[in-house]
Specification:
The protein has 155 residues and is an alpha+beta fold. It has six helices and five strands, in the order ααααβαββββα. It has helices at residues 7-12, 30-44, 50-56, 59-64, 92-98, 149-152; strands spanning 82-85, 104-109, 112-117, 127-133, 136-143. Strands 1-2-3-5-4 form a five-stranded antiparallel sheet, with no helix packed on it. A hairpin with a 2-residue loop joins strand 2 (104-109) and strand 3. The protein starts with 6 loop residues before the first helix and ends with a helix.
Length: 155
């Protein structure tokens, strides 16, 4: 298995997935690894769009594991694992790939908010811990009712 995407793989239509265990840079931060792929793509002129690169860690990775019925894209009935990155204009994929951890305003895991800026916690019913990160108040939400299988809409 290749350590990084290659032009031969791209030309052959090979599906390339990235996960938390793909780490040529030594980082265990998937956001950082997406940035590594973006740099390799640019330097080697592989032709991947920012959307293609994000797909490697979402729908393509889910498809390679045959989990794409359950996750990997935002669709009714799928597990809702989402990241909200600060930014109002332009391409969403570019925003994500240019973002660092200070630009992440919300993390939702399986439909449950787990990390948020103060502004985005309005209406949350869980309890959490207030932390200071990058000069802002953030919340690590630890206790919220976990969704049931039927509330997620999974079949």
């Amino acid at each position: 298995m290749a350590k990084r995407p290659t032009s031969r793989q791209r030309a052959a239509g090979v599906r390339i997935g990235l996960g938390s265990d793909w780490s040529p840079s030594g980082s265990k931060n998937l956001l950082h690894e997406l940035k590594v792929v973006r740099v390799v793509n640019a330097v080697q002129a592989l032709g991947f769009s920012d959307r293609d690169i994000v797909a490697m860690a979402t729908i393509v990775a889910a498809g390679l594991l045959r989990w794409d019925r359950y996750l990997g894209s935002i669709e009714a009935g799928k597990y809702a694992d989402l990241v909200l990155v600060r930014g109002k204009a332009g391409d969403a994929y570019e925003h994500l790939l240019k973002a660092d951890e200070t630009r992440i305003d919300l993390v939702v895991i399986d439909g449950v908010p787990r990390y948020a800026t103060k502004k985005l916690t309005a209406g949350f019913s869980g309890t959490g811990e207030e932390v200071s990160f990058a000069g802002e108040t953030r919340y690590l939400i630890s206790t919220m009712p976990m969704p049931t299988r039927s509330s997620r809409g999974c079949r």
